[in-house]
Amino acid sequence: MSLELQKIPLKDKISAILMQRIIDGKIEAKEKLKEAHLAKEFGVSQAPVREAIISLVAKGILEHIPNVGTHVKSYSSKERIEIYETREALELYACKFIQNGVDVLLMKEVYEKMQAAAKEDDVKSLVEYDQFFHELLLKGCDNCTILQTWKEQYTKSAVAHVIEEFDTTLENIVSLHFPIIEAIEELSIEKCAKAIEHHYKTIIKNIKDEK
After folding, report:
1. Of 11, 131, 177, 194, which one has the fewest beta carbons inside 10 Å?
2. Residue 206 located in a structural domain
């Protein structure tokens, strides 16, 4: 999915690109980020790259260890549960605004692509479509701060790892999203909230079982 990076500071553009690379698995856990290399790639000085990295460290997405370097932060099961609980809270807020209009037709298309990715055992594509699916819901509340906060939590969620370690089929994971679509079609805030709660309750239970 394309990033909407126009008309924002350079450091924020770089920060958004790095977050998306973490989600996509292009930057792996414990992989060191090198300012000079990134600056050369983006065709900028090291200053905005450094500022972007510092902001991601402050948000808990990256971790800096003196004399070692900066890499993607790893989280304990407890920390990951808290991250998913935060995502749930943000989506429960967003579902209050589904009557203002959520692109349910596009959501259905994305759901079908998630199903196809699951059948092909394509976790990378599944994560991509999962992100887009949830962002469609979040965009319904028309609150850029909430969407950005959710994106930061999604970046920290280790979604690919959670999916790969899930004690069920990929098809079953995808099916958790369909009740959300049904609720939005009915414009039922109550059903949407229950679907979201069930979605995250299932995921969080799986993380707890990993312990």
Report:
1. 194
2. yes
Domain span holding position 96: 77-210
CB atoms within 10 A of CB 58: 10
| Helical residues (DSSP H) of 95-158, grouped into ranges | 104-119, 123-139, 144-156
Cα atoms found within 13 Å of the Cα of residue 159, Cβ hemisphere only:
28
Identify the CA nearest to 193 among candidates 179, 206, 203.
Answer: 179
User: Is the domain of 50 the same as that of 127?
Assistant: no
Tell me the per-residue pLDDT of 74-95, one tens digit each, with 9 for 90 and over.
888 898 899 999 999 999 999 9
Flag whether pLDDT at 134 surpasses 90. yes
Is it the case that residue 29 has pLDDT exceeding 90?
A: no
Nearest one of 181, 176, 202 to 136, comparing CA atoms: 181
CATH (domain of 119): 1.20.120.530
CA 96 to chain centre: 20
Is the alpha carbon torsion for 172, 174, 178, 179 positive or negative?
Answer: positive
Q: Which residues of 175-210 are buried (b: 16+ CB within 10 A; e: fewer)?
A: ebbebbbebbeeebbebbbebbeebbeebbebbeee
Q: What is the dihedral of CA 87, 18, 108, 179, to 10 degrees?
A: -20
